[in-house]
Write a structure and sequence with these properties.
- Helix content is 21%, strand content 19%.
- With 245 residues, it is an alpha+beta fold.
- β5 (163-166) and β6 (172-173) form a beta hairpin.
- The chain is globular, with a radius of gyration of 17 Å.
- It starts with 32 loop residues before the first strand and ends with a strand.
């Protein structure tokens, strides 16, 4: 089940084929905003849409970028997008959280609905010119995963509203709906980026174990754990989601 489109690659991954030094200079600057539609969201490169002022209607905001160097440039496509998703998750959380202290590592917190993650590589022309980066873009979404307009930036806005899942249907829903469990944190399930989806029962068991360990670091309690499923895993989201309090 997909709450958002962590949309990623189709076709061959070519980042490691050109012996040119990595470059991030032309990645979209943090705070760049676009009025992307759902269809324009679902790409491996950023859609050719003109940026807009972040205080006007927009659905997407660049939260930062990650340089692609060394092993990352030589990974298989499946491993690369998992690596990109994990790295961009930390970029996104830092962008919306700021420097406020937290009881658990900042990178372990779940992104809010205002910053659901899409990761993008340079266009073929940019890659030919030597650009080697992944852009981390946050989408403002509805509980069903559709892009929704907003009128202000998401930088330093904090982590509310949280992601919520129904404990009856195990689908993402509004946090104000009945039987909502708030997914406050995330845990990376498999060490190898290229790992295949382990199957839902095993993934859920792994999420329970890792969420419990994360909560135990500060004497907290894990109340619910969840995995989005195989489709999200294919797009690079290898996280288990936790409700910790």
């Amino acid at each position: 089940m997909l709450f958002y489109r962590s949309t990623l690659a189709v076709g061959a991954l070519c980042l490691g084929l050109l012996p040119i030094a990595p470059a991030v200079a032309d990645a979209p600057a943090p705070g760049t905003c676009w009025p992307f539609s759902d269809r324009q969201w679902d790409r491996s490169t950023i859609a050719p849409v003109s940026p807009v002022d972040c205080y006007s209607n927009h659905t997407a905001e660049a939260m930062g970028s990650v340089p692609v160097t060394g092993k990352a440039a030589r990974m298989s496509e499946r491993a690369f997008w998992a690596w990109a998703f994990k790295k961009c998750h930390t970029v996104g959380i830092t962008y919306v959280w700021g420097n406020d202290p937290a009881p658990l590592p900042v990178s372990s917190y779940a992104r809010p609905m205002s910053a659901q993650l899409a990761t993008y590589m340079p266009t073929p022309r940019q890659r030919k010119a030597g650009q080697r980066w992944v852009s981390c873009v946050g989408f403002n979404t509805t509980p069903t995963g559709r892009a929704a307009s907003r009128l202000s930036p998401i930088a330093f806005t904090g982590l509310m509203p949280r992601l919520c899942v129904s404990t009856k249907t195990w689908k993402w829903q509004s946090c104000s709906a009945p039987n909502s469990a708030q997914m406050t944190n995330v845990v990376w399930l498999k060490k190898k980026y290229g790992a295949k989806y382990p199957g839902t029962p095993k993934a859920v068991a792994m999420a329970k174990k890792k969420c419990t360990a994360l909560a135990g670091k500060r004497g907290l309690t894990v109340r619910t754990w969840y995995v989005p499923g195989k489709a999200s895993w294919t797009y690079g989201d290898h996280f288990g989601y936790c409700e910790i309090s």
